[in-house]
Amino acid sequence: AQSVTQLDSQVPVFEEAPVELRCNYSSSVSVYLFWYVQYPNQGLQLLLKYLSGSTLVKGINGFEAEFNKSQTSFHLRKPSVHISDTAEYFCAVSDRYGGATNKLIFGTGTLLAVQP
Amino acid sequence: NAGVTQTPKFRILKIGQSMTLQCTQDMNHNYMYWYRQDPGMGLKLIYYSVGAGITDKGEVPNGYNVSRSTTEDFPLRLELAAPSQTSVYFCASRDTTDTQYFGPGTRLTVL
Q1: How many Cα atoms sit within 13 Å of B23 on the Cβ side?
Q2: Considering only CB atoms, which chain B residues are within 8 Å of A43?
């Protein structure tokens, strides 16, 4: 079974500063990895995903994440944040070969709070 | 292309009442899911479906029921609402790369 750990429940950062949101996962099988963003009072929106190939994945709104298999991590980064990036960010993992009953396992989320 | 739609957006129930949360997707996805989101707890899977007529329990199914008569619709039924079911409920559908697409959510309060 998979699990996801997002160690930081909240990350305060000033506008235009860089940010890294940490995600570590546990799995005995090959995985797909995802980052979702949830703006206040909205549903979750896919930010980026790693399925295969290059370990550096670029997503929407200038975010990127790097898959590190040896460290079982998938940290999310942005070089310069904006006020509009304030949101909750969820890391998720699924079994690459899970088949029809495959499910996404979510972390508990990290609130990115961008301050002016 | 509307994606995943949910109704209602908000609802207040009294203890013991019942209701159905509606979910519809127009992407022809076979897989659909119901989650609940509580503060600081992430998302918990309630029920899921791998196609019309096929449903199964997730992590927290007690107090809920589902049905899937068509590919598009996946309603969630709450019987005998309890305060512990106060939460935000999200429906999602999934494509062949395991990517899930979420609806805007239903905020439910049980008093």
Answers
A1: 32
A2: 4, 90, 102-105
